[in-house]
Amino acid sequence: MRITLTLTCFLLMATSAIAARPNILFIVCDDLNTHVSTSGYPDIQTPTFEALAKDGMTFSRAFCQYPVCGPSRASFLSGLYPESTGVLDNKSDIRQTRPNTVSMPQYFKDNGYWTASIGKVFHNEKADHGDVAWSDAPPWFENDELPVVTEARNKFEQEYGSVEKAANRPKWRAAMKAVLDPLNAQTPPGHGPSGLRDEQHSDGKNARQVINWLKRKSHGDKPFFIALGIHKPHVPFLAPDKYFDLYPREQIQFHRDRADLWNSIPRDASANRFKEFDFELGVENEPRRREFMQAYHACVSFIDAQIGLVLQTLKDESLYDNTIIVLTSDHGYHLGDHFLWGKVTLFDIGAKVPLIVRVPGVTSAGSHSDAMVELVDVFPTLTQLAGLEMPQHLQGTSIAPILQDPSRKHAKDYAYSVVSRGPNLGFAVRNQNWRYGKWPSGEELYDLNKDPHERNNVANDSRFAERLKELRAVLAEKQNMARSQRESPTVSDD
Predict the structure, then answer these.
(1) Sheet holding 434-439, edge to edge
(2) pLDDT tens-digit map of 247-280
(3) Mean pLDDT of the chain
(4) How far apart are CA 192 and CA 115, in angstroms?
């Protein structure tokens, strides 16, 4: 019979097993949904995810707090719910909405860690906290020149001479823009084989920068906190050709929704991004759907390979057994599910994220947890595992006890997520069996045991009136909690 350790004993065990101050590698992907093999999606190849899962713990019910890049990252990097960060869109900056908030990397840096970041960790370079958070953070990489651009440049120079000539520059910029716009476009998203090698893509460069830090021992005598921000599978869906070859379009599988699906679901629960992909709500376009799904899956397998290089370097440099690894995403993503495309929804496919955590000497190999976990829990978890005092402002709850014993119950029964709809918010609470959504235009209620893909809204079914009442009360409690750390924004003197 397994003896459940007290939290104190667990921390002592963790300290002795992985040293007083373990290294931390935090990997966050951009727009990655649960189309990975470790989340039970059988039609994609993600061997790195699988290898890490075999060494650590996979969480099957992990959720973001806001299914958009900026607000989600502000939330998990601060350990606060979006209503407390005040970051409810991609333009807001927590340094203005909630001044003096200490971010996760800053906290580790202030506590003796060498911290480094590459790629998209904070929402963008403008939102990055710079030297306050990082000991080293090179500028963001970009893809090398695409072969189609090289071809266009060669043709241009044959006709007009060098693109470096001052007289040619405006004309070449216009010609290059005409070539790149379809590939870099977000409406409709650019997609297709890039013609580049892995290392010529920005994410290939990001991974190799981390590898360089690890090989050079850039952290010196300090423990490190390295954040690897993976850009893909964010649009445009470009990846090296070989990853597209893994997914012949005719073999791609997906669920086909009924045409009247949205008759029973509040319209606010949808997002209009499907229009930018050139789809119609309630109308299936299979050839086009396969085309985009192939490109998305190619991007996922591409980033899986890049992450694999980093994890192998940890092993090669004898760092793997003293490094906590967290692999996750900022939010989910629709690929035609509910006839929707992109993010900004509170369905599971929009709010659920892959989450794999490996803590040497603590997590059992190949372990799983069905606990309700939120990304806001990452900050307190890593703080506790590092043996640091917990910052007082954190609203998340450490999952360190679950990492030691997956049978343990998490402190929270519900995951809570919000998203904006104009000046209003939509809300969702979800437990093991039910998801409840509240919108300006109505409510959602899904019995997840019978309807795991959330296609039968029973909010208006009188048989579930008591369940609806119960979840309304849960939501009100969560709303009050999520707003509890709100602070006044900075007031400009201008």
Answers:
(1) 415-421, 424-430, 434-439, 442-447
(2) 999 999 999 999 999 999 999 999 999 999 999 9
(3) 94
(4) 35
Name the nearest CA neighbour of 363 among 58, 97, 3, 123. 58
Residue 142 has a CB neighbour count (10 Å cut-off) of 10
Q: How far apart are CA 311 and CA 319, in angstroms?
A: 10
Say what the pTM is.
Answer: 0.94
d(CA 419, CA 123): 16
Sign of CA dihedral 239, 56, 386, 354: positive
Separation CA 277–CA 21 (nearest Å): 47
Residue 9's pLDDT band (boundaries 50, 70, 90)? low
- Ranges of each domain in the chain: 24-140+208-414, 144-193
What are the residues whose beta carbons fall under 8 Å from the beta carbon of 323, sequence distance 6 or more? 22, 23, 24, 25, 314, 360
What residue type is 76 in one-letter code? F
- Name the one residue in this structure whose structure tokens are 């050709």: 241
Residues annotated as catalytic (active site), given as ranges:
69, 123
DSSP state of 273: H
For 465, phi then psi, to 5°, come to -60, -40
Taking the C-alpha atoms of residue 444 and residue 458, their distance in angstroms, rounded to an integer, is: 7
Spacing of C-alpha 494 from chain mean position:
36
Name the amino acid, one letter, at 240: P
Q: Which residues sit opposite 334 in a β-bridge?
A: 342
Q: 452-475: per-residue pLDDT in tens?
A: 999 999 999 999 999 999 999 999
CA distance readout (Å), 354 to 20, 82, 167, 461:
28, 20, 51, 32
In CATH terms, the fold of domain 24-140+208-414 is Alkaline Phosphatase, subunit A (3.40.720)
CA 116 – CA 488 distance, rounded (Å): 30
Which tokens belong to 284? 């299936």
From the number of C-beta atoms within 10 Å of its C-beta (0-12, 13-18, 19+), residue 126 rates as exposed
Strand, coil or helix: 425: strand
Q: Return the pLDDT at 184.
A: 83
Q: Report CA 442 to chain centroid distance, whole Å.
A: 28
Cβ neighbors of 133 (< 8 A, separation 6 or more) are: 103, 105, 106, 109, 115, 117
Query: CA-CA distances (angstroms) from residue 374 to 58, 72, 351?
Result: 13, 11, 10
Provide CB contacts within 8 A for 464, sequence distance 6+: 445, 447, 458
